[in-house]
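Review form for a predicted model. The reviewer records the input and the model, then writes brief findings.
Reviewer: anonymous (R2)
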Amino acid sequence: MRELVLICPEAQAEALSDALIEAGVLSVSVEDADGDTDAERPLFGEPGLEPDVQAWHNNRVVALLPDGLDPGQIMEQLRESGTADYRDGDWTLRDVPDADWVRLTQAQFQPIQVGGRIWIVPSWHRGNPDVPVAHKGAADGLVRIELDPGLAFGTGSHPTTHLCLQWLDAHVEGAKTVLDYGCGSGILAIAARMLGAGATLAVDIDEQAVQSTRYNARVNGVELEAMLPDGLPDGQFQLVVANILSNPLKVLAPMLANRVAPGGHLVLSGVLERQAQEVAGAYAPWIEMKVWQAREGWVCLHGQRPA
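Model under review:
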């Protein structure tokens, strides 16, 4: 594998990171390009306080490239989108040892409890005696999801996933049809089924995510369909949930909104609090979206399509 390294100013860091993800890189990290120099400055202030800025004055943006992705194509896509105009010599490549970076990163996660009855249990903690066992028909309604993200991100540790799971726990029962768009490991689609939802479809642009969702569904004894976007059949759903990035959510607004059946619900996450109004505005022609809950600077938006 290789890493693409770019330098950008403070105002450009967030947009550049989003554009790189949309261009197909596996991950993006942002570092202080002035680190370990006299120009270095801290980004965060006192513990618990929001930083005044979301990046450093000079930023080193490092993108992990999957095999086969041409960095020149990424540069062209950045230029065409108006995000940045990098020329030869403005960016560098460096080799990194081949490894299953997703597994190495996610192996650190422990079992996670969401609310009062949902447990997300990574497959490597299957026999953990500290995690309660779910019994079908038990009065406590415990839902235990065993998860192996494989090559798709999604262990349930991110605040946006927590928010979506909490919404599903409180509202999904009785939903006859569900669409999880941007399913990743399949955690939300699987949770919806285990919490009482009916027919559920899971969609992702990444074939590895589709395969991970199918595998995790089988492990948990859940019936659902997982597919690439081209395989999604026509029709509307009583619940549509999408936990992705704010920019794709805005682009997908017409499609996602029109996938919601009259009287149905739309749940969106992957949105920072400062982005909530802009994302909600993209859906306003079809569905009024409001912040349902916030967690650690992220929000979950919810709206109901008029019947």
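Findings: Residues 159-171 form the longest helix (13 residues).
Further findings: The first strand starts at residue 2 and ends at 9.
Recommendation: see findings above.
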